[in-house]
Amino acid sequence: MKGFGDLQKMLKNAQEMQDRLQREMAEMRVEGSSGGGMVTVVLDGQKNLHSLRLEPEVVNAQDVPMLQDLIIAAFNDAAAKINDILAGKLGGLGAGLKIPGLG
After folding, report:
1. Which member of 31, 34, 65, 84 has the lowest number of beta carbons within 10 Å of its beta carbon?
2. Which domains does the chain have, with CATH numbers?
């Protein structure tokens, strides 16, 4: 039954790593911008919006669609950065796991 104990220990370690990663992602703050910094957003690692900053020059009642596009682009910029950070963290975590039959 030694193998079963090792499996339980491995699963417990994986759960602890997942919990730690979720805490880190919730505490993380990532900034994204568009329009040369005219629109800036801050997201946490779970992609919740924490702040939005608009430079006054970008606010034009005659061109609301452009402002909407800039906000979306800034959000997507921050989200892409989060995806890159998460991929790096998951890659590092996976390297430490020794799963029988997978490597």
Report:
1. 65
2. 2-95 (3.30.1310.10)
